[in-house]
Amino acid sequence: MTVAAIEAGRRLADARATRRPCAPVRDLLAAGGIDAGYAVQSAWVADQVAAGARVVGRKVGLTSPAVQAQLGVDQPDFGTLLDTMVCPAGTPVDIGRTLQPRIEAEIAFVLARDLAGATIGPKEVAAAAAYVVPALEIVDSRIAGWDISIVDTVADNASSGLFTLGARRRPLSGVDLAGCEMTMWRGDEVVSAGSGSDCLGHPLAAVTWLATTARDHGQPLRAGEVVLSGALGPMIPVAPGDRFRARITGLGEVRAEFTGRPVAAERAAVKEGPA
Asked: Assign residue 200 a region: left if phi > 0, alpha if psi is -120 to 50, beta otherwise?
């Protein structure tokens, strides 16, 4: 990596270690752009694996027009999911594990086969998937105030935080992935809504983009991995005591409850409500 990329990695690492969000890193990575961001991300993942973490999947970020509008970003990105990010269903999530948490509902794919071939399209993705489940991703940013560009979020592992999966597994053949409707509640209040078509037009298109892009970066998707295909509606800030429930038609429900004290909270920073 370049000296600038190393410094960007250190800035993000310090934010994680001190539990204090940092300044954006796009100033350091301007010359290298998105590729420099992915180099910073890859180095962080390698450090985590060397320290004992295990890669369990990938995520596509910034697939929903609503989320792109919230952050002022106009293209997707991808990040790596580690076993340290998994939140078992039914177990309260300690919000202190995050800095500036927000939550979004997604469709998660679990792969039965690698996606590493020269030709990867929706048909290849569908054939490689063992099943799909509803998921909640607790996205997070190490950048203060979520003041991010595409380069910032890529370097910050696509603003990955934590995730939890629903219990109900469904074969792809039994679900209308583009037509399914998502509704997410905080308590009894509907706070986010959308559909499968809000995820790059079709969740299969999002996973196809991810599989192709990850392959081209030398990190192809592997059998057994979880793939979070991207938000189906606006992301919502999270506070201690919040209880979220998301329902995706044809897939079922997934829930998350939050305890503890936040490190950095900004509920008022994002406009809430359905798409």
From this structure: left
* pLDDT of the chain, 275 residues: tens digit per residue: 789 899 999 999 999 999 999 999 999 999 888 999 999 999 999 999 999 999 999 999 877 666 666 666 667 899 999 999 999 988 999 999 999 999 999 999 999 999 998 999 999 999 999 999 999 999 999 999 999 999 999 999 999 999 999 999 999 988 899 999 999 999 999 999 999 998 889 999 999 999 999 999 888 999 999 999 999 999 999 999 999 999 999 999 999 999 987 555 443 333 443 33
**Residue 187, Cβ neighbours under 10 Å: how many?**
10
Facing residues of 221 across strands? Answer: 115
The alpha carbon dihedral of 107, 111, 114, 120 has a sign of: negative
Closest by CA to 36, choosing from 148, 156, 213, 139, is 156
Q: Cα(first)–Cα(last) distance of the chain, in Å?
A: 40
Q: Are 243 and 111 in contact (CB under 8 A)?
A: no
List of residues 6+ apart from 3 with CB closer than 8 A: none
CB atoms within 10 A of CB 247: 18
CB 138 within 8 A of CB 162: yes
Residue 22 CA to residue 92 CA, distance in Å, equals 27
Can you tell me the distance from the alpha carbon of 18 to that of 32, in angstroms, rounded to the nearest whole number?
A: 27
Pairing of strands 226-231, 236-237: unpaired
Q: Are strands 226-231 and 55-61 parallel, antiparallel or unpaired?
A: parallel
Which among 274, 239, 230 is positioned nearest to 68, based on CA atoms?
A: 230
Number of Cβ within a 10 Å radius of residue 27: 11
